[in-house]
Amino acid sequence: xxxxILVSDASxxxxxxxxxxxxxWSLVQAFEHPESRAKSSELSSDGRGxxxxxxxxxxxxxxxxxxxxxxxxxxxxxxxxxxxxxxxxTHNSYxxxxxxxxxxxxxxxxxxxxxxxxxxxxxxxDKDLTNLNDRELHNRLEGMLENGEAKA
Length: 152
Description:
By secondary structure, the chain is of the alpha/beta class. It has helices at residues 40-43, 69-90, 103-112, 115-118, 134-146, and strands spanning 3-8, 12-18, 26-32, 50-52, 59-61, 96-100, 121-125. It has one domain: 2-Layer Sandwich (Nucleotidyltransferase, domain 5). 35% of the residues lie in helices and 24% in strands. Strand 1 and strand 2 form a beta hairpin. The protein is globular and about 45 Å long.
């Protein structure tokens, strides 16, 4: 039984495949989304339109953004990951899926993944482990999954 392990944050992700316990994982794909690391000021123009207020209190922005540019980029990235996971599911590339991400990004993942992909999720870990190398990641996650720290 093949398990895919997605280790992600809002700007980068690594997807591993594990076929057997205690065997090294193989990297399926690495993802980068540098726009999620950019400063909000670099992602949006500062030339928003403005309109005169009727009460004469000066100008205010005509359109206030409801979502920050960084959140928009994180949403773009999470949709890219969801699409890849859905494609893997339709090609029977995995039977089980584990998700590892910081709490806020893990929530975005859960809300974006299709119901069919969510049926394959066997574990979630709400921690940012993207900075660990492959070996440290494998050791840390194997321990978490075995000790029951991961939540399904």
